[in-house]
Amino acid sequence: MTTQRISKIGFFSSDPWSRRVQNLDDAFRRLGVDVLHVLPWKVLRWGSTESHEISYEGKDLTELDVMFVLDLGGNDIGAFFNRVGLLSALTELGVNVINSVSSILLMRNKAETMRKLISARLPVPRSLITESIEDAAEFVRQNFPCVLKPITGFGGAGVQLIHREFDRSNIYDYLKFHSQLFGKGAFILQEFVKSPGYDIRAFVLDGEVISSMKRVGGEGITNNIHAGGVPEKNDIDVTELAVRSAKSVKGRIVGVDIIPDQNGVLWVLEANATPGWAGLQQVTDFDISQHIADVLSRK
Ligand SMILES: Nc1ncnc2c1ncn2[C@@H]1O[C@H](COP(=O)(O)OP(=O)(O)O)[C@@H](O)[C@H]1O
Ligand SMILES: [Mg+2]
User: Fold this and answer.
1) What angle in degrees, to the nearest 10, is found between the helix axes of 110-119 and 239-248?
2) DSSP state of 258
3) 223 close to ligand 1 (CB < 6 Angstrom)
4) Closest atom of ligand 1 relative to the 199 alpha carbon
5) pLDDT of residue 185
6) How far is the CA of 7 from the centre of ligand 1 (A)?
7) Which residues contact 40 (CB under 8 A, 6 or more apart)?
8) Where are the domains of the chain?
């Protein structure tokens, strides 16, 4: 029996020329699925008493079977709300948006992700989330050295270990500077998990870990590929933690970050709604894009 496939998919991405998006495009086309690249800032929405229309270069986006969000972009609050609204409207009009808007929103916000991980009783490093510079400073005094991160962000941007005596004794300046640079108005302060020099990224698709890697080295404490972390094969079993984490944020496609401490205890750091796989592909012996296309194109 042949697999029933969807006929049209949209890729919601601000970088349709990237290798990842091109590979995925090839993969879906091989399965006979039409691909439409949608640049988020070129979408038009028309609202009137009778109707709500959503179009891209003259094409009606509600005719898509699936809209696959590869990156949401939209750091500006107006663009962000517009894109969230647009994807919600598509959902309401019958398009299957992957990941769901609510799931993307949860993972876009590290504090919200943490809330879900905690509700699912997953192990997370003890954290303080606050807008108060005073309380943030107190956390640093009590938990030195510790990790500071912005409430939203990716690629390791703004994730820093506060470990210098100089920074501890000038903690208000440090926090003010961090806030100016990463401009998010809220701090996440977190226990520092001393790892053996790597963390683990697990790629979960529809409740299954399809592949995982160690990310070794990188800038400061961040092992992100964006921060210079190098992919290596992973031999640590993170299946249960990764699958439960992805489930807790209701993601169909999720990149879960897990870090081991010196005793080999595993901690979940975060979950990502629009994970890349260029690094992961280097240590994976099947074509990840093809596998994703195969799964997401099934009816
Ligand atoms: N509490 C922590 N202890 C040790 N290392 C951490 C901690 N939090 C983050 N890191 C390191 O920083 C990286 C980036 O942090 P993460 O929370 O995943 O933010 P981002 O969204 O920028 O990837 C992690 O992959 C890990 O290598
Ligand atoms: Mg991360």
Assistant:
1) 110
2) E
3) yes
4) 27
5) 87
6) 39
7) 12, 13, 14, 72, 73, 74, 79, 83, 86
8) 8-98, 106-123+194-296, 131-191
The C-alpha atoms of residue 120 and residue 187 are separated, in whole angstroms, by 23
Tell me the fold of 106-123+194-296: D-amino Acid Aminotransferase; Chain A, domain 1 (3.30.470)
131-191 fold: Dna Ligase; domain 1 (3.30.1490)
- The protein residue whose alpha carbon is closest to atom 8 in ligand 1 is 269
Query: Which amino acid is residue 267, in one-letter code?
Result: W
| Residue 148 three-state SS | strand
Whether residue 252 has its Cβ less than 6 Å from ligand 1 = no
Return the structure tokens found at 130. Answer: 């606050």
Render each residue's pLDDT in the chain as its tens digit; 299 residues. 688 999 999 999 999 999 999 999 999 999 999 999 999 999 999 999 998 899 999 999 999 999 999 999 877 899 999 999 999 999 999 999 999 999 999 999 999 999 999 999 999 999 999 999 999 999 999 999 999 999 999 999 999 999 999 999 999 999 999 999 997 789 999 999 999 999 999 999 999 999 999 999 999 999 999 999 999 999 999 999 999 999 999 999 999 999 999 999 999 999 999 999 999 999 999 999 999 999 999 99
**For position 6, what pLDDT does the model report?**
97
Spatial separation of the C-alpha atoms in residues 202 and 271, rounded to whole Å:
10
For domain 8-98, the CATH class is: alpha beta
Burial class (CB in 10 A: 0-12, 13-18, 19+), 15: middle
Does residue 171's CB lie within 6 angstroms of at least one atom of ligand 1?
no
Ligand 1 and 145: CB distance under 6 A: no
Specify whether the CB–CB gap between 38 and 12 falls below 8 A: yes
